[in-house]
Amino acid sequence: MAKRKFSRKKSKKKTSSSSVKYISIILLLLILIVVLGYLSYKGWNSKQRTNLQPLSTVVSTSMGPVEYFSKGEGQVILLSHMEGSGADNLKLFDGLTAAGFRLICPSRPGYLNTPLNENATYAYQAELFSVLLKQLNINEKVIVMGISAGGPTAIEFAKKYPEKSKALILINAATDKIDSTANLTDALRLKSIPFLDEKSDIASWLVYNLAKYNTRKVITSLLEKNSKYAPADREMKVAELVNLAGAKEDLLRYLESVSIYSKRSEGLNNDLNNLATYKPGSGKIRIPVLIIHSKTDNVIEFSKAEKFKKTADNAELYSYEGNGHAIWLEEDLKNITAKTIEFIKNSKEVIPYEIGIAGTTWVNKSDGALLQIKSDGNFNLDFPSVDEKKFYQGKAIVVDDQISFTYNPGNETCANIAGIYRFVLNDGNLELKALNDDCKMRKQHFAKGWFKID
Predict the structure, then answer these.
(1) How many Cα atoms within 13 Å fall on the side-chain side of residue 324?
(2) The total number of structural domains that make up the chain
(3) 138 three-state secondary structure
(4) Whether 247 contacts 177, CB under 8 Å
(5) Strand order from edge to edge, sheet including 315-320
(6) How do beta strands 165-171 and 142-147 pair?
């Protein structure tokens, strides 16, 4: 009996020892998994940051540092990137650079290496784009393109700098305030990760790796948050997308353009604040406009695109089914690129008179005189004065970059004498250089320069 009791105690001790051993192995395996995961994350994070550097340039402007990416040669397309992205958003549009365009994409304030200004409204961002072009010595007219939350910056640029804008292209873009930005914020998270928020770089690493090994899962999550598809239709759409050649590569390229959240979160929060209060500036857009919008967009309603079309004089709306908000894989991206190229080639440039001079009140820098050039070819010149109010009317004829002024009969000064000037529009200023004007008083006065008021 004594030997049996001794044997049982020995058996219990042996069992306890085995349990400790198994637990130790499990803990070691867990530690190993955590270490390997951390090393994988650090390697991925480092690679993503390194990939941003070759195309990135930070320049000093009169409004502070601005980061931009530039790619391709030819007609300049100024790209205002989507929310949660940055200058690297241009990587999604290789089809445009391959077609002979040069894409310039600045990181808007708070994104990547462009610092956030306290008052970084969309009007401010449009001005920042203008000074960047000046810094880069780009004097030609650009095609300005706005993606999603980058739309308002593109709109404000086209309105404020018509003399610098050849055409406006909006893709799934915000064109007015968004009453609730919850869908937009949720869409950027891609997948709910309870212990992480959208600022976490680890979250973007997890989603990126999930997309590599379970493309279907991430595409399903994207469509759940970004599209209006009913569950059954969504399943069919997912099955169609995952079977496309290159779908995984397109998805990973998209995820790369919104990864490293910590370098984009300030800009994203600024976008969300701006979108809640944004109101487009006054005045119509007279340059050609192409609006591309998905009918299944769950973040920015298709009706917003239809409404904006009515506010522009020369706008075209191209609708497509798509995968919801700003999710382009394979065929959609090709169709959007093809439509964009077709639009640019067929767009007729509106002469500066129609978009930059007419319908605007110009103030003389010397004495505050008000010059109004009307679309019907008439003009008014008003000299506000306490002692003596002078008011002139006449005809204004524009040919290319020249304009002639003739005062109507009955004016005391230089009636029926035509003055021919070359005009230049530059950052809201009108410069008139006399080519032939025998009216010395007008010639001296017009040469002082003018600035516009809205």
Answers:
(1) 25
(2) 3
(3) coil
(4) no
(5) 56-61, 64-71, 101-106, 75-80, 142-147, 165-171, 289-294, 315-320
(6) parallel
The tens digit of pLDDT for each residue in 273-327 reads 999 889 886 667 878 999 999 999 988 989 999 999 988 878 999 999 888 887 8
In this structure, what DSSP letter does residue 115 have?
P
Read off the pTM: 0.73
Domain endpoint, select from 350, 380, 411: 350
- Beta strand pairing call for 390-399 and 378-383: antiparallel
H or E stretch covering 264: none
- In this structure, the strands spanning 315-320 and 289-294 are parallel
Number of Cβ within 10 Å of residue 438's Cβ equals: 10
Q: Within 10 A of 247 (CB to CB), how many other CB atoms are there?
A: 18
Task: Indicate which CATH number applies to the domain containing 200.
Answer: 3.40.50.1820
Tokens 């599209």 correspond to what residue? 227
Distance of CA 15 to the CA centre of its chain: 65
**Per-residue pLDDT tens digits for 96-129:** 999 999 999 999 999 999 999 888 999 999 999 9
Which is it for the CA torsion 208, 86, 68, 72, positive or negative? Answer: positive
